[in-house]
Amino acid sequence: LSILENEPNGTVVGVFQGIDPNPNHVLTYSLVSMEEPYYSSEHNDTEHNASLSIPPEFFHLDPNGTLTSLHPLDYEVDPQEIPLLVRVADQHGAFLERSFSVSVLNVVEDFDEDGVEDHFDPDDDNDGFDDSLEQTLGFNPFDRWDYPEAPIVRTIEVSEQNGTLLFGAEILSSGGFANLNVGVSILDGSGELITELVQTWSAGNEMDVSFTYEFALQPGQEIHYQAFAQNYIGKTEGQQLEYWIGGDPALGKWWGNDTDLVGGWRESSWFGVYLPNLENEWVYHLQLGWLYVQLDGEDGFWLWMPEEKWLWTKKSVWPFLWSDSSSDWLYPIYSSGVRYFYDYAQGKLK
Questions:
Q1: Model confidence pLDDT, tens digit, residues 141-183
Q2: Among 33, 202, 262, 348, whose Cα sits 20 to 30 Å from the Cα of 169?
């Protein structure tokens, strides 16, 4: 006798038929309980043989002799050979018993068609995550598109109210998890960590997470901040933004619209690269050196240099510089890292 694994309840395995030479006989069939050793398919040695009680664990035998299954059988888990002791009895109580066995036949179950049967395959849907992990985390191990992912988070721009900074993070995706650790990293202008603000986010809450930070920072101090979110898969970060305590000191400055470079340097489309002093009007020009800058009110600059005193220029005449001392033009020339001026009043380099 045999039956394929996974067949539904009530599958007919076979029909027994007894022969009684006596006339007018009425035969009935039944399974006889017994303690029978069987080989466990989950072990490779006979030391793990055990006793199997028959019936009613696997089969039902109808009085008319029809043998049916009680539940689907699993080739990889259940015994592969199941012994039976069948009794046929007449109406007078005479009976005969015979032993049989039912073979459970394997059906190749390979959900992801990778050549490894599901029972032995740690990743049935071939999504890169073990079945046990997916089940633990609440994902379907037989759904290729249901798997854990890292979260996605966006940094919300900070605001300032009465000495308190208000930070925020927007959860764009939780990666399929019900809970996340969400926070904001706050760094100083050089990139050194000042502090981290962290809290737990749960699915069903607002997608925006808010943080407050009562700071002991100086007005005009530059900070950088960045939202992050973390789940079992990993930690991801949003865009890093910058903020000036008390407002951006560049606002209202003549250099405020120039390109902001790393470390506070600025670049003008015509004036070049320079580093402004946030507390006064001095700048360090990458080619001219230290300059004290005053606007002339007509889109021009008065520049005071230690060596040349007051010079004037504007976008339309740059890099020519009008010297207040010589009442003539200077033209900067650079050679081997040294800066010279051609002095039109003297007609020579100096």
A1: 777 777 788 899 999 999 888 778 899 999 999 888 888 999 9
A2: 262
The DSSP symbol for 342 reads E
pLDDT tops 80 at residue 254: yes
Tokens 């109580």 found at? 93
Asked if residue 109 lies in contact with residue 120, where contact means CB atoms within 8 angstroms, the answer is no
Residue 50 near residue 79 (C-beta atoms within 8 A): no
Q: Are 237 and 181 in contact (CB under 8 A)?
A: no
Sheet holding 348-349, edge to edge: 259-260, 266-268, 272-276, 282-285, 289-295, 300-305, 309-314, 321-323, 328-335, 338-343, 348-349
Neighbours of 180 (CB within 10 A): 25
pLDDT at 95: 93
Q: Which of 5, 1, 65 is nearest to 30 (CA)?
A: 65
Indicate if the alpha-carbon torsion angle 306, 308, 309, 311 is positive or negative.
Answer: negative
Q: CA angle, corner 248, sides to 246 and 249, nearest 5? A: 95
**pLDDT at position 42, please?**
47
Tell me the pTM: 0.46
Using alpha carbons, select from 198, 161, 201, 162 the residue that is nearest to residue 180: 201
DSSP type of residue 136: H
Residue pair 177/231 in contact by the 8 Å Cβ criterion: yes
User: Can you give 268-332 as a three-state secondary structure string?
Assistant: ECCCEEEEECCCCCEEEECCCEEEEEEECCCCEEEEEECCCEEEEEECCCCCCEEECCCCEEEEE
What is residue 39's predicted lDDT score, i.e. its pLDDT? 45
DSSP assignment of 80-135 equals SEEEEEEEEE-TTS-EEEEEEEEEEEP----TT-SSS-GGG-S-TT-SSS-HHHHH
Distance (Å, rounded) from C-alpha 98 to C-alpha 313?
116
Q: How many CB atoms lie within 10 A of CB 245?
A: 17
Query: Which range, of 153-157, 183-187, 215-219, averages the lowest pLDDT?
Result: 215-219
